Amino acid sequence: AVTGFPVALMDGTAITAERTAAGSALATRLLARENSTVMAMLGTGVQAEAHLRLVSTVRAIREIRIFGRSSGKARALMKRFAGQDVVVNVVSSVEAAVSGADVVNVCTHASEPILSSEWLSPGVHINSVGLNPAGRELAGTLVASSSVYVEYRDAALGPGLAGSNDLLWPIRDGLMTANDIVGEIGEVISGTVPARQVEEEVTLYKSVGVGVQDAVAAGMILDAARAAGQGVDLNF
């Protein structure tokens, strides 16, 4: 950090996937109802796999429903997570996945909203990590009617490719204002903003990614690798 001299080469895709899913797991631990047992997954990519693995560790998940555009990828994901303690099914629609679910993970590259409030049960917690500069994955009315939390306000509401259309477009359309965002996850941890207030409240964690989190995660991995004697030394 002092000189900018490179100290390691790492797989950024793997680190970003872990960091993103860990953020959603933290949000779920802080915001989802304690008795949450049913989880829906919309998406079948790298983020979907990481979210299923990490988010399921913070609640006693007993049922997982997976929906994706590719039924083959959805079935492959199902096979990786099926076990004695959890029932995993591939479903044919978004509505079938999220109806009655306690936790919904949305990890897509959708250009048009795929998740609407009419399919959701009161008290659901939503993790949304999709980012498409040309569109969004959440209906504006859903976002406006939810208690919204973010990683970092300036990033989530930033211009251009950095910000989230899932938030910026409902604000643009007059459905909500930036002040309607309840707070950042860090503020929930510090106690400066509230977490869930009532059982029926719909909570939404919108993640756009914050580069400093990747840097910190990489530093933790480097420290762990050094302690374990892992890695290969290279000379340039």
Quantity of strands, as a count: 8
* Distance linking N and C termini: 20 Å
Helix content: 25-40%
Q: H/E order of the elements?
A: HEHEHEHEEHEHHEHEH
Count of helical regions: 9
Mean pLDDT reading: 94
Unreliable parts:
none
Strand fraction band? 5-15%
What is the makeup of the main sheet?
8 strands, parallel
Write down the Rg.
Answer: 18 Å
Looking across the biggest beta sheet, what order are the strands in? 3-2-1-4-5-8-6-7
Question: What global shape is seen?
Answer: globular
Classify the secondary structure makeup into a structural class: alpha/beta
Textual characterization of the structure:
- The structure is a single chain.
- By secondary structure, the chain is α/β, with parallel strands linked by helices.
- The chain has nine helices and eight strands.
- The chain has helices at 12-31, 46-55, 71-81, 94-98, 140-144, 153-156, 165-172, 185-190, 211-228, and strands at residues 38-42, 63-67, 87-90, 103-106, 125-128, 147-150, 181-184, 203-206.
- An eight-stranded parallel sheet has the order 3-2-1-4-5-8-6-7.
- Helix 1 (12-31) crosses helix 2 (46-55).
- The protein is globular and about 60 Å long.
- The mean pLDDT is 94.
